[in-house]
User: Which sequence fits this backbone?
């Protein structure tokens, strides 16, 4: 579990398995939840209270976000990677034709995303330090800032001084998943490369907070370890970051493992119903936080959670470098994960409206930065 967690995993899971329906009901009656209430809401006993959780989460989301859903898209700039994460299609041992975009190619990709009306961009890359280094990224971000109001990164972790350069160039948000907070499992899944160091990966997020990023995105790759344990770790991690780096907002993502080339046997499958329960519990415990849902999930599931708890949704995502421009050539290329919602931005926006909400393409401006 997250190292600063005040409870150990066995005690926590034992508590959760003994939560009663009455415990869940009393947590749902509260306006401000304690950590123990969060544990009640992710318990098996809470599975019978999903409609009540949904209603309460809807009210919380309405309170902090109104009837809005923010749209964004990822831009993959390289699928070269020196790490060997067992669950990922980009791991160093996978043989396929890799791509790394030059600065001008990144701008061409960005133009396509911008043409969809999107104003919020997530730059994604494998760990590719030879080419995708801080100097290259600073140059690219300065150009992208001319096109997008909000830029965040999901790339190889960097030292604080490099994060600072990226922040000054115009990056607002940092996303860095711990993948799993269970250290022995982490070490068994990350065979080689810089990412194999669990503690160091955890520390990088603090470097990002010190560098000034406004948004810090955390998450676990759901399916690796017991999801309830990961949920408690994510919540504890967020509370730790909030306490120590209060200038930054903490946001949450909930990526579930989807099939990859070569196969990976998911050790702890998580169902859609469980994913919904988890997201609702996060909305109720962290009412003001951004919750992200990606195109890993189906249209139906995404429609359901944007109504109740998710505040941010990706759209028209392509998870191959160069894929926005070269859509026609995509079919034989290997993405990082399988997409389950390939709707266009217009379709996603229309579905948001049909659900009685407003799609938001821009929610940030330079004057705020
Ligand atoms: S998860 Fe990230 S670091 Fe690991 S192999 Fe995939 S791209 Fe590389």
Assistant:
């Amino acid at each position: 579990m997250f190292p600063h967690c005040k409870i150990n995993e066995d005690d926590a899971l034992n508590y959760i398995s003994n939560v009663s329906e009455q415990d869940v009901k009393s947590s749902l009656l509260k306006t401000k939840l304690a950590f123990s209430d969060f544990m009640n809401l992710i318990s098996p006993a809470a599975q019978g209270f999903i409609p009540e959780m949904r209603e309460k989460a809807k009210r919380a989301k309405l309170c902090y976000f109104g009837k809005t859903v923010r749209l964004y898209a990822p831009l993959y700039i390289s699928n070269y990677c020196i790490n060997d994460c067992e669950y990922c299609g980009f791991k160093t041992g996978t043989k396929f034709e890799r791509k790394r975009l030059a600065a001008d190619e990144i701008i061409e990709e960005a133009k396509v995303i911008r043409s969809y009306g999107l104003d919020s961009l997530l730059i994604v890359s494998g760990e590719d330090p030879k080419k995708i280094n801080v100097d290259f990224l600073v140059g690219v971000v300065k150009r992208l800032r001319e096109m997008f109001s909000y830029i965040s990164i999901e790339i190889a972790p960097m030292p604080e001084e490099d994060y600072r350069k990226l922040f000054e160039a115009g990056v607002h948000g940092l996303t860095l998943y711990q993948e799993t907070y269970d250290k022995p499992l982490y070490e068994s899944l990350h065979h080689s490369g810089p990412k194999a160091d669990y503690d160091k990966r955890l520390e990088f997020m603090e470097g990002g907070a010190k560098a000034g990023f406004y948004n810090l995105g955390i998450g676990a790759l759901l399916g690796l370890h017991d999801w309830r344990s990961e949920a408690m770790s994510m919540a504890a991690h967020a509370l730790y970051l909030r306490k120590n780096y209060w200038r930054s907002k903490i946001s949450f993502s909930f990526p579930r493992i989807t099939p990859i080339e070569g196969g990976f046997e998911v050790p702890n499958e998580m169902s859609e119903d469980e994913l919904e329960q988890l997201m609702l519990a996060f909305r109720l415990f962290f009412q003001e936080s951004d919750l992200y849902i990606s195109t890993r999930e189906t249209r139906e599931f995404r429609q359901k959670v944007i109504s109740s708890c998710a505040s941010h949704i990706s759209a028209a995502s392509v998870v191959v470098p160069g894929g926005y421009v070269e859509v026609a050539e995509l079919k034989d290329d290997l993405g990082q994960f399988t997409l389950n919602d390939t709707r266009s931005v217009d379709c996603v926006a229309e579905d948001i409206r049909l659900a009685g909400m407003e799609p938001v393409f821009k929610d940030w401006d330079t004057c705020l930065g």
